[in-house]
Amino acid sequence: MIDNVTAVTYINNMGGIRSVECDKMARKLWNWCIERKIWVTAAHLPGDQNVIADRKSRVFQDETEWMLSPLLFEDVCRQLGQPTIDLFVTRLNNQLPHYIAWQPDPGAVAADAFRFYWGEEIFYAFPPFCLSERCMQKIILDKAEGILIVPKWSTQSWFPRLLSMLIRDPILLPKADNVLTLPGCKNALHPLHKKVILGSLQARGIPEEARETILGSWRESTRSQYGAYLKRWINFCYKRSCSPLYTNVNTVLVFLSELRDQGLHYSAINTARSALATFTTLSSGNSISTDPMVARFLKGIFSTYPPMPRYTEIWNVSLVLDYIRGLPPVEELDLKMLSLKLCFLVAITSAQRLQTLHLLQLDQLTLNDDSAVFRVTKFLKQNRPGNVGFEVLLEAYPKDERLCVLKTLRAYIAKTISHYEMRS
């Protein structure tokens, strides 16, 4: 099935006299097929129906090409040293002439940085945030040296490893309009930029004295989750010369349809709808969250691409418990193994989110003979007005002290109390 009429004719006729090159290619194709006893028949498929083969060339996502402003990049290089190769870029946003693209690119020396050895040159990398941990593993594996741009996410599991890898003091980039730029969109602001959100509130007529407070209702996790879709929406509107703040329902449906065509399923598209509802006003006066046509579209997505469960099986916890029983007494464990054992026992006995476990602090601990209570005073995902503050209860397990979270906690405190006091 080919959308080129000339190619169809030359293949079916086993060559031709109009074009020497087409004749050579057709003969080469048929000789290859004859050697393998294959018969080929070509049929014409109109270009507008050739969606599978042409999908990559028809869907161009230049909104993914955010980069550091060139002036800021030069300042970073002056402080940290000049890199020689740029990773994870395209010909649109490369900072250095020598670069590796994330897909085939006519100006790149190669494609897919993870397929190559990083230790031969001083690299510069501004990867998608979801690849931060994988980049750190690659740097360690290749013993590479360079400049890595990552978000300051101290709650991420990879953040301590990042700090241990530093060979110079890190640079905290400024919070300014021009830190990130998008090639081809001179005045584009990152979707999570405060001014973009404030501009949306201003366009809705929200009083200035109330905007900052309303902006505070967005938690960091929500901003991170919505950010990808708001970024796509803003650049979708830039391409069509329409306002991202005021629009009609048909434009929203086209945008959601593009997300569907890019392979997103119901959950992701529904998240995109929620993100747009906080940012955009429909000309009809309806909210994007409650508009009947948008709701009907989401029901169609749900029926056509039903969401699948994230996990299809459970792991056998008894295997881990048996392993823990075989460990030496807690007094003999080194700090790493003691920490791992404590984290597992706290997680399995309290059944709390990782966010909650990360916020457990010794200065908020009440330790009793048969229990321990951590008071969590910081904001959690499950906090609501009238439901602020949270306690995590850990009880002793006298039936088997090898699995007792309270005994493990006491051993951990005894081994780390000197470090904690020095830090305090």
From TrEMBL:
Keywords: DNA-binding
Highest taxon in the source lineage: Eukaryota
Gene Ontology molecular functions: DNA binding
Name this polypeptide is given: Uncharacterized protein
UniProt organism field: Holothuria leucospilota
Taxonomic lineage from the root: Eukaryota, Metazoa, Echinodermata, Eleutherozoa, Echinozoa
